[in-house]
Amino acid sequence: xxxxxxxxxxxxxxxxxxxxxxxxxxxxxxxxxxxxxxxxxxxxxxxxxxxxxxxxxxxxxxxxxxxxxxxxxxxxxxxxxxxxxxxxxxxxxxxxxxxxxxxxxxxxxxxxxxxxxxxxxxxxxxxxxxxxxxxxxxxxxxxxxxxxxxxxxxxxxxxxxxxxxxxxxxxxxxxxxxxxxxxxxxxxxxxxxxxxxxxxxxxxxxxxxxxxxxxxxxxxxxxxxxxxxxxxxxxxxxxxxxxxxxxxxxxxxxxxxxxxxxxxxxxxxxxxxxxxxxxxxxxxxxxxxxxxxxxxxxxxxxxxxxxxxxxxxxxxxxxxxxxxxxxxxxxxxxxxxxxxxxxxxxxxxxxxxxxxxxxxxxxxxxxxxxxxxxxxxxxxxxxxxxxxxxxxxxxxxxxxxxxxxxxxxxxxxxxxxxxxxxxxxxxxxxxxxxxxxxxxxxxxxxxxxxxxxxxxx
Length: 457
Known about the structure:
The protein has one domain (10-447): Glycosyltransferase (Alpha/alpha barrel). Helix content is 47%, strand content 7%.
């Protein structure tokens, strides 16, 4: 990528206005036409949303898009839509013991509603606020209960694959524990033993930084600084680490780009959260330096890796080691082409990374690292410029998605390949639409000098 340092959130305002005009109509149309009995909308096929039974991890993104649209425009019809659908359909996600997706589903709905009320964007109602906060507390505790202890005595929140599986994805979902902790909640275990949600957040984040992110230290023959393993596998009998793996990437020894995006955005957000805590808060885990330093290292390594493995405009292939990538040569020499017939891109990874770059840049600015702050903020705006224009912006009214050229599961062949093409392109996914909305909210708030949205306020 070549970050354009001339770009600012203010300069992106016309593109954001156009995006919002499209987004309102598409969010309302999907709400009218989608039958929740089919499950959650996951990704599009020929421009229409479909479901895919794996886990129901995208329903909160659908209703979260409506809430973010209200946040951006003040259109109360979308507030009513998101509020009503949350009450009607999201309760089972709060107590779902089988997934690692609580921060996705429940902070996109209950979390956004709580934030909007605390910001004064909707009327303060103590009982309604209690309802949102109770949902968040329960969700955080249920998420924290999916715990696998490893050989060093710490552990991680295991993925839906089972207790042996540490996913990169969970790093972004981890924030539900942070907010539940801020609300004074704990997980109660056997013998009425309280378990700190902050402790599980910290231990999971440090375990992920240790095993899922690489730093060029010779862990294996493919140890490139900033490379990310989608999954780390552990022997649950003795807690020993075994090997890298992947579910959605090309191989255990290549970087599935969306996995890296979850890492980059997740650490940037956690660094903002941890900066708001005191030294005493972090003392049980070795103090601020012991907690923060590995997370900063992971965030910076993945930020630099993505810059080096993306096209000029900030888009990247779905996996940096996929077979066709080598035939392109140096990516920095050309803009992206989502209609190439060698390997698909994943625009959702770019949208998630862009938010990560913006938050990481702002975090570094607060620490006095002006040079890296400018670079990463420019990267965020460069990606946003590409995503808010064709061919990535879904401008056709008949297409239900907002962000085009998203890949869900390339190895399983779930993504639609249009007639006459060799690889998937032209489709959307619920998490891509939602994270583009989150990115737009960040940019719009900054451009207008409005409060900076964080999950833990």
